[in-house]
């Protein structure tokens, strides 16, 4: 094809009768522009009509779409952390496609609270007096501090001045809430006596924050939960506990020994406990605050509540997830829990099958033992033994890009110039789709010139 052979935008667009006029013109113009560029660069120009149709499909496709997480990081923040259980997905679909009983009272038909039901579930599951749900755990922190300690001192150990991923820096959040940060102890050692000494007329809260994503070893000490609770009772100052992940079950049998369990904080007597909904709890993005009824009431009444409250989709997903805990089905049905418990031997078996299929497509694919991580701001050295399909290819970045651009994108992890596909976070019903993302190996080696349209 030469420049002279390029069709006019009008001519090409009229051949796209299945599209609206505006879209047909837009993609025809883009396809012709691309072809002109290719001619200038001395490249071969492909079928313009096919290219225009491909562009139209890409435009109609949502940019936020389902992806396959073969990174081995179970709660990958960039890939949306926890995935929902089937019953939670169904609950979301039901209230998304119709009206919902969000703020109605079944008995009176009058206005009810969108939070009553969830609060009851959290009371049953954790023993807390009351609960309230907000947008995420960062919001829970801001709300708790603003509602309870605004204009007052918040005492926090220097060992817990944490930064969680994505610019959540606790000292800055405290300032934003209108409270004043009072640091006590040292980086590595803080005792309950340090808290005692810092207490004054103006103290609004004793705060503890779980150092989710790092750990100190060696000459370290921190005030025990029980000591903080006792000091709070004795001085009548609320004790707030940001536990991060919101584990409702015990994960220590899987080597995850640093994760505070919600029920333990409540039972120990923390006045207010808060955590994420989409980390180890395995639900939707949310922040949950629970504890003393009077303190939860202050949070609910605060003007920020309206800005931080969750929508009906979140509440539907959270309620369905909590019901799985309530009915003893959490380990079987909540994907995050199933993946943590997933047997390494089963993962290895599935990897071998997938490797054979990839070999048939021409890939150099083998299977190796590796480790998965929980992720989502938890400790990187808390690892779960796992297996991965290991792909060696000359054009590895091109292959990884192709996989990211697939209809259902696949995310693996590159390690020592090899692409690893850890199947711990990949469910069985995703394997077929994962395989489909792989073009025949030869096409990748050719630099992706095969068209593929
Ligand atoms: C993850 C985490 C947060 C932030 O939670 P989001 O739900 O991401 O807002 C806050 N504090 C701790 C201790 C955490 O682990």
- Predict the CATH topology of the largest domain: Aspartate Aminotransferase, domain 2
Strand order, main sheet: write it out. 3-11-10-9-8-4-7
**CATH architecture level-2 label of the largest domain:** 3-Layer(aba) Sandwich
Strand count, sense and closure of the main sheet?
Answer: 7 strands, mixed
Shape: globular
Total beta-strand segments: 16
| N-end to C-end Cα span | 19 Å
Residue windows where pLDDT falls under 50 for at least 5 positions:
448-453
Number of helices, where a helix is a run of at least 4 consecutive DSSP H or I residues: 19
What's the CATH superfamily of the largest domain, by name?
Type I PLP-dependent aspartate aminotransferase-like (Major domain)
CATH class wording of the largest domain:
Alpha Beta
Mean model confidence by pLDDT: 93
Instruction: Work out the radius of gyration.
Output: 27 Å
User: What is the total number of structural domains?
Assistant: 3
Strand content: 15-25%
Polypeptide structure, described:
This protein has 453 residues and is an alpha/beta fold. It folds into 3 domains: 1-60; 67-83 and 334-453, Aspartate Aminotransferase, domain 1, CATH 3.90.1150.110; 86-330, Type I PLP-dependent aspartate aminotransferase-like (Major domain) (Aspartate Aminotransferase, domain 2). Helix content is 41%, strand content 17%. It contains 19 helices and 16 strands. The strands form 4 sheets. Strands 3-11-10-9-8-4-7 form a 7-stranded mixed beta sheet, with helices on both faces. The protein has a 5-stranded mixed beta sheet with strand order 2-12-13-16-15. Helix 10 (262-268) links the parallel strand 9 (239-244) and strand 10. Helix 5 (116-126) runs parallel beside helix 13 (312-326) and helix 6 packs across helix 11 (293-301). The chain binds pyridoxal-5'-phosphate. The site of pyridoxal-5'-phosphate has 14 residues, from helix 6 and strand 9. Pyridoxal-5'-phosphate binds next to helix 6 and strand 9.
């Amino acid at each position: 094809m030469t420049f002279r052979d390029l069709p006019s935008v009008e001519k090409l667009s009229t051949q796209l009768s299945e599209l609206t006029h505006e879209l047909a013109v837009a993609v025809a113009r883009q396809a012709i522009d691309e072809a002109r560029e290719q001619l200038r660069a001395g490249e071969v120009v492909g079928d313009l009509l096919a290219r225009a149709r491909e562009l139209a499909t890409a435009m109609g496709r949502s940019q936020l779409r389902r992806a396959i997480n073969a990174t081995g990081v179970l709660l990958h923040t960039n890939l949306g952390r926890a995935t929902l259980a089937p019953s939670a997905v169904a609950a979301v679909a039901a209230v998304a496609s119709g009206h919902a009983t969000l703020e109605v009272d079944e008995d009176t038909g009058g206005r009810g609270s969108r939070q009553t039901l969830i609060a009851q579930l959290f009371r049953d599951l954790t023993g807390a007096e009351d609960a309230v749900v907000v947008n995420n755990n960062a919001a829970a922190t801001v709300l708790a501090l603003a509602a309870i300690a605004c204009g007052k001192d918040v005492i926090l150990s220097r060992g817990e001045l944490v930064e969680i991923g994505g610019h959540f820096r606790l000292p800055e959040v405290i300032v934003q809430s209108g409270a004043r940060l009072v640091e006590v102890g040292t980086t590595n050692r803080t005792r309950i006596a340090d808290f005692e000494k810092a207490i004054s007329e103006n103290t609004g809260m004793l705060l503890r924050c779980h150092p989710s994503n790092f750990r100190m070893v060696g000459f370290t000490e921190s005030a025990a939960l029980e000591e903080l609770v006792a000091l709070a009772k004795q001085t009548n100052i609320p004790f707030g506990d940001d536990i991060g992940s919101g584990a409702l079950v015990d994960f220590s049998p899987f080597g995850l020994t640093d994760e505070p369990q919600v029920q333990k904080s409540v039972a120990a007597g923390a006045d207010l406990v808060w955590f994420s909904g989409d980390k180890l709890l395995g639900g939707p993005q949310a922040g949950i605050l629970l504890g003393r009824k009077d303190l939860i009431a202050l949070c609910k009444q605060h003007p920020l509540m309206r800005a931080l409250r969750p929508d009906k989709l979140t509440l539907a997903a959270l309620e369905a997830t909590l019901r799985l805990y309530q009915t003893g089905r959490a380990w079987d049905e909540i994907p995050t829990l199933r993946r943590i418990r997933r047997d390494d031997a089963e993962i290895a078996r599935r990897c071998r099958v997938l490797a054979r299929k990839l070999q048939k497509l021409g890939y150099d694919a083998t299977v190796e033992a590796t480790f998965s991580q929980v992720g989502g701001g938890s400790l990187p050295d808390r690892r779960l033994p796992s297996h991965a399909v290991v792909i060696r290819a000359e054009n590895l970045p091109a292959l990884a890009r192709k996989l990211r651009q697939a209809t259902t994108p696949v995310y693996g992890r590159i390690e020592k110039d090899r692409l690893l596909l850890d199947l711990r976070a990949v469910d069985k019903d995703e394997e077929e789709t994962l395989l489909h993302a792989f073009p025949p190996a030869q096409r990748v080696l050719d630099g992706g010139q095969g068209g593929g349209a």
